[in-house]
Amino acid sequence: xxxxxxxxxxRPSRKRRRAIASILLGTFLLGSSGCASTLEPPxxxxxxxxxxGDPRIRVLAAEEAVRELxxxxxxxxxxxxxxxxxxxxxxxxxxxxxxxSGIALRKATGVDHxxxxxxxxxxxxxxxxxxRAWLARATEPPRDGDDELEANDDREEDGSEPASxxxxxxxxxxxxx
Length: 177
What we know:
By secondary structure, this protein is mainly alpha-helical. The protein has a domain of 100 residues. The protein is built from 6 helices and no strands. α3 runs antiparallel to α4, α3 packs parallel to α5 and α4 runs antiparallel to α6. It is elongated.
């Protein structure tokens, strides 16, 4: 009659335990290095935080930018910089940042250029270019001798007047899609 082999020890060998510990340590270190950006707190300035390494802070900064843009006492230079940074955030690598930046721009300006955060990159790039062109027109200083802009020069693609950067809470009719 054959004897059954002796049962092996359930406890892994020292070599195997070291290998498991190395794998766990490596996984922890790699995982925590990807979250290193969350260690840096937000600055509290939406303009600076829109460039933060953590996408969650960039989303919160977009929301704060809308609140700041809604204030009447904001300087025009600051308004232009915030709007410009929001437009650049439409090209962010993180979809949630793009999404909230698009919402922030629509709320702050009353204008929509057909941007969709989930759209293919080529469609997003086209919409971002439309936003950049709008921002360039909206922040352009008035021409000498011209009290009003010529109607044909600054019309949006749909034929409506561009929303003024100075009064973002008063959208022009037909600009919000």
